[in-house]
UniProtKB/TrEMBL annotation:
Protein's name according to its UniProt entry: Tetratricopeptide repeat protein
Membrane-crossing residue ranges in chain numbering: 6-29, 41-66
Listed InterPro entries: TPR-like_helical_dom_sf
Keywords for this protein: Membrane, Transmembrane, Transmembrane helix
Gene3D superfamilies per UniProt: Tetratricopeptide repeat domain (1.25.40.10)
Length: 325
């Protein structure tokens, strides 16, 4: 057998051994990575198997590039692409004074007049409401290119601001100081409730938020907001039973603080189980004082008290809970 005939056999053997080793290493590496980081590893492994030398080098370059330029950073470049700065419309921003309760934002964003749509979009810059991303995506689904640009730039500005607040507070907060831990928790909460993140980004941030709360609970076991925040994350992750147990724990340990009642009642309301809400409302009527409630909490309790006449006629929740201090 001539050397010319032997060489291809060695190449085939080398290719097979190399492919098996690369595949096994890739599997091990992927198990250690988050779900959103596995795509580029799979691509690198495939390139390395098909092209042992060149593909391996190219695959390593792909992984390095993906680490250097994460997917979420690409959205930040869109503002530069459309050459739009939010501060250029300062007058429009300060003029807008919309309220989530008074102005139907869906109608504004889908208004036939482009000027009205832009005005509604810009109002999100100064308004602290939940679900900004949902309304802004409505603007991006329109046919008016200028409105689409406004919506994209506003979403970019808001998400960047919220994420920057989280990262800055993560770097600066003292985990032993409850006030600073609470501020970081509220920043996570605002980012998630804004609905500005993609589903994959939101899942990653919720996982990060949950780990933060678990650690905070070990340092501050007497903080009720940690239990309710923990329950909120589990509820968002589709675990309402575990969330309800945490809310119940918060109510049991801190009966004079309203947030546990509020979270649990909202959960029962969404699940359409009024029979579960009645005892919670009864306990709230004993321990809560109207003067300590926020306007949202007062509205919730007023609404549920109105419904409670159908659930349990003898429940006199309104007179006991909402009496003036």
């Amino acid at each position: 057998m001539s050397p010319a005939d032997v060489m291809p056999i060695w190449l085939i053997v080398f290719w097979l051994i190399h492919g098996v080793i690369v595949y096994l290493l890739g599997r091990i590496w992927m198990k250690k990575k988050e779900e959103e980081d596995r795509g580029h590893i799979s691509a690198a492994v495939l390139m390395a198997i098909v092209f042992p030398v060149i593909g391996t080098i190219a695959g390593l370059l792909v992984i390095a590039a993906a680490s250097r330029f994460p997917a979420e950073s690409l959205l930040e470049e869109y503002e530069k692409y459309i050459s739009y700065e939010v501060t250029n419309l300062e007058a429009l921003r300060t003029e807008a004074e919309w309220s989530e309760e008074l102005v139907p934002l869906v109608d504004m964003v889908t208004d036939q007049q482009a000027e009205n749509r832009r005005h509604a979009i810009m109002s999100h810059i100064t308004q602290d409401i939940r679900g900004q991303g949902r309304y802004l995506r409505m603007g991006m689904d329109g046919a008016d290119s200028e409105t689409i640009h406004y919506a994209a730039a506003t979403m970019n500005s808001l998400s960047g601001r919220f994420e920057k607040a989280v990262e800055q507070q993560k770097a600066a907060h003292d985990p032993d100081m409850e006030s600073q831990v609470l501020q970081l928790h509220q920043s996570y909460q605002k980012l998630i409730e804004s609905d500005l993140l993609s589903p994959l980004q939101a899942r990653h941030k919720r996982k990060e938020w949950l780990s933060f709360l678990e650690e905070a609970h070990t340092r501050h076991p007497d903080a009720s907001w940690i239990l309710t925040g923990w329950g909120q994350v589990l509820e968002l992750d589709g675990q309402p039973e575990k969330a309800a147990r945490l809310y119940e724990d918060a109510i049991s340990r801190f009966p004079q603080e309203a947030e546990g009642y509020e979270r649990l009642l909202r959960l029962y309301w969404k699940q359409h189980v009024p029979e579960e809400a009645v005892p919670v409302m009864q306990k709230a009527s004993v321990y809560l004082d109207r003067s300590t409630l926020t306007e949202d909490q007062k509205f919730l309790f007023d609404m549920l008290e109105g419904e409670s006449s159908e659930w349990q006629p003898t429940l006199n929740f309104h007179s006991s809970l909402l009496q003036s201090s």
